[in-house]
Amino acid sequence: MTAIPLGVPRRLVEFTLDGQEARVPEGSMILDACRAAGKDVPTLCEGDTLAPKNACRVCVVDVEGARTLAPACSRRAEPGMVVRTDTERARHSRKVVLELLASSVDLSTTEPAARWIEEYGAEPDRFGPDAARVDEEPRVDNDLYVRDYGKCILCYKCVDACGTQWQNTFAISVAGRGFDARIAVEHDGPLTDSACVYCGNCVEVCPTGALSFKSEYDMRAAGTWDEERQTETTTVCAYCGVGCNLTLHVQDNEIVKVTSPHDNPVTHGNLCIKGRFGYQHVQNRD
Amino acid sequence: MDLRFGDGKPTDEERAAVDALLGPPESSWAGADRGGTDTADLRWARGGREARDRRDQLLPALHALNDRVGWISEGALDYVCRRLTVPPAEAYGVATFYAMFSVRPRPATVLHVCTDLACTAAGADELSAAVAARLGPENGVRIERSPCLGLCERAPAALVIRAGEPSCPTPEGSPTPPAPEGASARPAFEDVAVQAESGGPGAAAPGDGNGKGRLGRPTLHATAVCAPATPDTAVHAATTPESAPTEPAARTAAPQTGNPALTPTIPTTPTTPLILLRRIGTTDPTSLDDYRAHGGYTALRRAFALGPAGVIREVTDAGLVGRGGAAFPTGRKWQATSAQPDHPHYLVCNADESEPGTFKDRVLMEGDPYALVEAMTIAAYATGAHQGHLYLRGEYPRALARLTHAVRQARTRGLLGDDVLGQGYAFDIEIRRGAGAYICGEETALFNSIEGHRGEPRSKPPFPVEKGLFGKPTVENNVETLVNVLPILTMGAEAYAAIGTPDSTGPKLFCVSGTVARPGVYELPFGATLGELLALAGVRGNLRAVLLGGAAGGFVRPDELDIPLTFEGTREAGTTLGSGVVMAFDDTVPLPRLLLRIAEFFRDESCGQCVPCRVGTVRQEEALHRIVDRTGTDAAPDIALLREVGRAMRDASICGLGQTAWNAVESAIDRLGAYR
Q1: A108 and A16: one domain?
Q2: In this complex, do A132 and B618 lie within 8 Å of one another by their Cβ atoms?
Q3: Residue B89: closest CA among chain A residues belongs to which residue?
Q4: I need a surface site. Which of A83, B200, B349, B364 has the fewest CB within 10 A?
Q5: CB-side neighbour CA atoms (13 Å) of B624
Q6: Which residues in A lie closer than 8 A to residue B603 (C-beta atoms)?
Q7: Are residues A222 and A254 in the same domain?
Q8: What is the pLDDT of residues B343-352, one digit of tens each?
Q9: What is the ipTM of this complex?
Q10: Do B337 and B473 touch, CB atoms closer than 8 A?
Q11: What is this structure's pTM?
Q12: Helix or strand or coil: residue B7?
């Protein structure tokens, strides 16, 4: 018999969300309630497997009585709270945040950014041609994955995934300050000189494509990357007895990258170097 | 924790600097030489939680390296990480966060030339250029442009820091201080402090013929404050900081002391003698006896008589609100913390005074250090804390020397320690130095900084009273706020509350600088008007604008001098009191340049955590740069852009830095009509 842990029963918190009664379990974030109610609140730094970092500020909502806007991803719902997700004030901040991001980094591989930029009427070009950008050359210093910090929005997800929240390897951190802050390994050296164990769990959570598989990076450079032609097959890793789930992304009968389902109750989308990158033998046809 | 370290090795000097703070390494796991240790090393590694719990020693360790060598090398950083079980990537992130540290080699001497508002108005750019023409890396001096050094009353200011062997024990006491080898070669600390008082800039001269055997090595750690600086004095101080002229006594920064003519005889408020500044200039700041002779420690006795709840009641009844800028009721904060069931409780004194134009806390700490020690003891007693942290700005060498000395004296005399005043109450103070980060004045960023993390603000809630330093209930107060507790207890809440206005009680310190005849810290009861304050300081020239509250504050016009200097009065007038900055500018100061400097300040000091502030402060600076010489319709599109970005920064930033980064610029546009 399999026991299914139900957890401690939680009280429900009642509050007002866009004029409607909302009820969420105690401890839930405003964002949880928004999603349950089917509202499209944009998020970038929020991750389904990570504690909210509350850095991008694109999910801000209006809480009645508060001096500033509140981040929906990390503000807990409180009884009696009156929250509005779509006020002019909140939309303005989201629009400007999108403009600030799009004018400073390359969002071309940040999946939903283009849609939000259109939806909020953001004009990233209005800061002029001389607006400072995070101009970083892609760092290709190993065969497994590429770090292109010109696309990085500093969401901290990779740092959290590498640190206490999942991997406990602590190979990366934010270095520097302000606009010059960057994700870096110790002494800002190459990955090969760092504590990195190449689990690729940072790539798994990166929302922008700043971290990408070398295979994907090369195919994008060659113009052959085409997600339309890819299939995804979820299977079980054959290396050890843990039995992690792998999702193989296959294009033209070649594995082009490996991800893992985030809802897996054991691994939560995390893998090790073998499951993540050790698929070459599958394709060895000699 | 399975950490990986690089191949870098510390030099002997770097190792010595770290070991002086942390004690010698216990095993080769922690970086000791493999040869010399016994075989026990091979059986087990000491570490685990016990080692990781010393993470808060990271910032002091980085300071130790910076003080000794002037920069932080890969080998040195790795050694610190081994000793403290900190991942090297995280330590690198911390080391690169602070402006006073460098992870690249640099000359041993760094000359920080303040280029902020008051100093720029007093010719900092010319000073900086003149010094740069005469000094350079070839002289072993690196010149760095610095944000406000808190010496606005003596603008333009410069601070020299020369790395070298310590001339006194490090202020950050490690939990297990090592027995100093050759202790006789180390000057007793009191001597150093006395020297600092009697003329030296806080450091012993190298090779001063006192038989300390350092004649051949002119590399003692030394600091020198040079203000007002001329190219000559700055060059002299940078090349020989140990023989730089003495800093003037703290009382010179408080023009009212010893000058009854400047005691406020203000029609709107009853005349009161100086309360907060009364000991400055009249009491020897190094002498505990003198402090006690001038009424010191009567407030603490009264506190013990009242009991913790009684103290909180007095502070609440007195109507004391925080003086750091946020104006939160102190009594309510104390009550909330003392009521927390979680233990231990901590007390943190925020002495990271970095708001441009603010120097009141420096004057208090330099002129009356024991008052802060006593006030911290009272605050801790009231809130049930047994450990206090004093987070002191890294750019205040004299305040550091004075307070280190004061804490030591208080400890020897039983006023700190296991049994304060024989009342069975234990309390001690640990001084932590900041390292050049305005953001660390934000209360939660300050906690992260003490804990050895990057000084990034946390999101609130939870608030510090619930989860603060080390995740425990914490009271954090500004220096001026704490010092106000003393008169509340000696005078009684009622008499204290009678000073000022009903909503803003007590005396208030104002930092007056800019184009005034007598810049300095002024103490006035709340309720005096801006004009009355400026009359005391004596406005020079044709007043064009007054900046209230510092870079995060706002400008007002010369025809608004009747604004009452109270929290409610400034709020009503649509401006802010902030940290008490009152900076006057005459019409020769180009306003657009001033605004650009404010924007540069926020761009440099943004921690980079949230997007609105990280990128918004850059876009604000770019726009102000574009319109620095434009007016009218030429500037209009950029002003519209500034408004949009400013609004998003105010609404969506995590902390007060981003939320206020547009205040001063907005007020200059709307109130002063800049760019019109």
Answers
A1: yes
A2: yes
A3: A186
A4: B200
A5: 29
A6: 178-179
A7: yes
A8: 999 999 999 9
A9: 0.95
A10: yes
A11: 0.92
A12: coil
